[in-house]
Write a structure and sequence with these properties.
Thrombin, subunit H; alpha/beta; six-stranded antiparallel beta barrel; QueA-like; 8 helices; single chain; nine-stranded mixed sheet
């Protein structure tokens, strides 16, 4: 089937875009989509939707203080959003400035240290940080938490904890794997007591996750690359879940892309690398039986992934239902549980 960008558009009232988290992580609503059936639940109901022997696969990445402010030698203001570290003292980053900085120029960040512009790598700038300290240490000390562009405020002390999952441990993301924000330790303990397994992987979310799709013909779109680590223990847990008849449930689109990307050669393989997997309707899933995810932006690649898992018409029906019933959207919003359709188109 030929897919166009307009196939993934929908109307979202601005007041439904969540600007702050709820006081309690698991107090969000949960829209359950099982084939064509929709049901309105609470996220706290999730343990009752899972069976002993099911396996949840979480992304344990941690959001870094990736946004830094500074100035060029000419005095012009600069905002740097680190995309990823590419060594102990170098990063790729987006830069907002009145004029693009030139290769070889220096930028003063946080009135604390200088970085050198080494050049461009695609849409990103290649920056060299001082050699006296680890680059992630400098970013954490002098940067700020980079809330998504649709949250119209600066990060505060509350966001420092709530824009991280309770199990975040591997620093490297510029955006949270937001499906995991709904889980608190009490729910994780309850799931374990119910016989539901948990496994872990790491995918560092890049700033490209917020970049719009700029082509109408989706066959021409190229995904941004993101780094992942898939441990052997997680692959073994998935194999055991399969053998015992349980379901593999990806917590978030990042977990799903990592699992399916690592299975593209026909067998799920542990290891590390980069994935630029673009999941569209018609994609043949090999690992995940279900997905827990938030509600995503119109015309976004994440919405396309949801349509691949659920089917185009069920996805449209679910999003229309969510808008009509005032669900909260995007990073700090409500969640969906989607059972995979093997015939999804």
């Amino acid at each position: 089937m030929s897919l166009k960008l307009e196939d993934f558009d929908y109307t979202l009232p601005a007041e439904l875009i969540a600007q702050a988290p709820l006081p309690d992580r698991s107090a969000s609503r949960l829209l359950v989509l099982d084939r064509d059936a929709l049901s309105d639940r609470m996220f706290s109901d999730l343990p009752g939707l899972l069976n002993p022997g099911d396996l949840l696969v979480f992304n344990d990445t941690r959001v870094i203080h990736a946004r830094l402010h500074g100035s060029k030698a000419t005095g012009g203001a600069v905002e740097v959003l680190v995309e990823r570290a590419v060594g102990p003292h170098e990063v790729l980053a987006q830069i907002r400035a009145s004029k693009s900085p030139k290769t070889g120029s220096r930028i003063r960040l946080a009135d604390a240290f200088d970085v050198t512009v080494l050049g461009r790598v695609g849409e990103f700038y290649h920056l060299r940080f001082p050699t006296g300290a680890d680059v992630l240490e400098l970013i954490e000390r002098h940067g700020s938490l980079p809330l998504p562009p649709y949250i119209e405020r600066t990060a505060d002390v509350f966001d420092e904890s709530r824009y991280q999952t309770v199990y975040a441990r591997e620093p490297g993301s510029v955006a949270a794997p937001t499906a995991g924000l709904h889980f608190d330790q009490a729910m994780l303990d309850q799931l374990a007591a119910n016989g539901v397994g948990c496994a872990w992987l790491t995918l560092h979310v890049g700033a490209g996750t917020f970049q719009p799709v700029r082509v109408d013909d989706l066959g021409e779109h190229r995904m941004h690359r993101e780094r992942y680590v898939l441990p052997a223990e997680t692959v073994e847990a998935i194999g055991e879940t399969r053998r015992s008849g349980g379901r593999v449930i990806a917590v978030g689109t990042t977990s799903l892309r990592t699992l399916e990307g690592a299975a593209q050669d026909g067998e799920l393989a542990a290891g590390s690398g980069e994935t630029d997997l673009f999941i569209l309707p018609g994609f043949r899933f090999q690992v995940a039986d279900a997905l827990i995810t938030n509600f995503h932006l119109p015309k976004s690649t994440l919405l396309m992934l949801v349509a691949a898992m659920a089917g185009m018409e069920p996805m449209r029906k679910a999003y229309a239902h969510a808008v009509a019933n005032a669900y909260r959207f995007f990073s700090y919003g409500d969640a969906m549980f989607i059972a995979r359709r093997n015939d999804a188109v």
